[in-house]
Amino acid sequence: MEEQLKMGVTEVEEDDEHDSKESVLQRYFLQEWKLVKSLLDDIISNGRVSDISSVHKIRSIERLTRTRQARCDELDPEGKPLVFADLNWSVNISKWGPNIGEQQIGMGLTLIPCKDMTPGLNSTSKASSRGEMDKYQEQGQLLEPYLESMVSPLMSIVRSKAVERAAASEEILEVIKPVCIIIYSLVTVCGYKAVVKFFPHQVSDLELAVSLLEKCHNTQAGTSLRQESTGEMEAKCVILLWLYILVLIPFDIASMDTSAGNNNYAGGDEPPPLVLKILEISKDYLSNAGPMRTISGLLLSRLLTRPDMTKAFTSFVDWTHEVMSCMSNDVVNHFQLLGAVEALGAMFKNGSPKVLVSVIPGVWNDTSALMKSNTAARSPLLRKYLVKLTQRIGMICLPPRHQSWRYVGRTSTLGGNITADRIETNRYNNYRNNDLSNFYQEPDCHDEEDMDVPDIVEEIIELLLSGLRDTDTVVRWSAAKGIGRVTSRLTYLLSDEILSSVLELFSPSEGDGSWHGGCLALAELARRGLLLPISFHKVIPVVIKVVLTEVP
Description:
α23 (473-487) packs parallel to α25 (512-527). The longest helix has 26 residues, at 21-46. The protein is mainly alpha-helical. It is built from 26 helices and three strands. Among the domains are: 2-138, no CATH class; 457-548, Leucine-rich Repeat Variant. Residues 381-548 form the Tubulin-folding cofactor D ARM repeats domain. This is Tubulin-folding cofactor D ARM repeats domain-containing protein.
């Protein structure tokens, strides 16, 4: 394998001078994919991970795709050019010039000076390079074409082993943990939405996945010091994501629960025992500080917004009310608070308005009260989640509407204009001139129906505007997105009022944070076509003032 890789790299290097950087980097990735494929084939043929080192090799190679902001224009202290050196591929990038940058690097190959090159494949150097990968961001599109060929066989192993060894919980976990490490590495690189599409989703898998999650959850008590490298966290995350797909089955979950008869399940609005198990474990994970908290919230958002989960949803909202009303400085309670707010935000994003509208008053009261508390003042992450929840409540309160006044940009091609018929060109020019004459006029909104905005929406807009003044960028950014989303469902007159409120953030008495939040909001409005040319005479002077202002 090593000799084949070296031969392939030699062939690639011969064509480097004549090909684009993107094609060269793509070929390097394909060379790495050969190694990944061979390791995966061994795992699939054996039905398990026989050598744990293969997991770490695959994981390290997958980490090499996190590179969007790699800098490749540096020299070492001796003035020697840096090279792509993972897997010890000596590819000098100096011939590409000093301006190679963000968009040109397609995978996170470790950058080391030429003098550090050593021949052959070295697992020690690969292990030491993992810390270098942390500074790289995700570039998962290189892996996406191969996701199905990786995820489907690995999840088949998880499913088959769970069926074969249903009684021996420890033996199952020892088999699936290394497999789940690989799957979760793909999730971190490509995102859960791209990966879960290839998870098995048979109706019979629901009970199997819940049983597997229960076994993973129960092993936590026997571990005094859990380390992520053991695969426990990865296994739980993968099974939660599996359930995230399985709870979408178009049947009543009670009819799928074979344990309902043994537990004297009465039926009706009461959730079946299978759902109660998921709720109990997911609530526990909402207090977790890691990714299990976010994934549990996603699972609950899919499960509790089902039409047959009305009572379970109401019960969960009551539980979140208790959590959000409890002001405590305890660290565990704080993580639970983050999990509860994040889960509610996911529900208001994925749920149907018919299910959510009945709980809006209570959830909004808890949200607005918590946003004004000292607990939120100390936690930027909590404020970010609260702003997200706020804007999603506003989206439920405002039905989607078509805005005839929204600005829609045009695109034209040079070739189309050259080859167009003269008559059609003149007709286009006449239309364009007439259209430009109305470019800066007030939009015709006579056909727009009057809109009765609920009082809660006005409070939501006020909170989002105050979020633009927040001291943390993540909160301001989330508030700006919320302003754009809520404005997209309002009439022109109401949207113009919001624009005026945003422009008030640029007064001299406001701080730098408010100016930055206002710029984010203006950019979001412009991106959605909600900033009309008629408003340019108010917006452009403000933007120029911001650009010319020196920030100390």
